[in-house]
Design goal:
The chain is an alpha+beta fold. It has a single domain, classed as Heat Shock Protein 90. A five-stranded antiparallel β-sheet has the order 1-2-3-5-4, with helices on both faces. Helix 2 packs antiparallel against helix 3 and helix 3 packs antiparallel against helix 4. The longest helix has 20 residues.
Amino acid sequence: MASLAIHDLAVMASASVLGSLTIPGRPEHVRAARSFVEKALGEASQATDAAVLLVSETVTNAVLHSNSRRRGGTVTITIVKVGGGTWIEVTDDGSQVSEPVVKGDGCVSGGHGLFLVQTLADQWGYVRDDGRTTVWFWLATQNGSPTGRP
């Protein structure tokens, strides 16, 4: 158990925040989120393509289903390189009536953003606190494995 804790500390010590962007919670700003991820990750790769797609989906969900869509609402995207992969968080202004839900039924139109996250990410989840919701996901860029939230 002690070696796991030491490994976790080593991974976190090597973490590097690539950037954070806060955008208005409006549909026309989803493009800015995609562009931010492409620029922050730099290299063209399957992991970068997946990150751009998943950020697009999670930011769109935030814009459509959270209080971020209200006047003055925002969505924040944070990208961290850590432990052989990329950790991305999308934080919105929360919602009193819903929480992130995976819809896996391919026959239903719309609502498949989190299904894509679940399918393409090596690990994902969400946290609700202080009236905000953060959907996070991990994409391994090597044979790294996720060690939990940095």
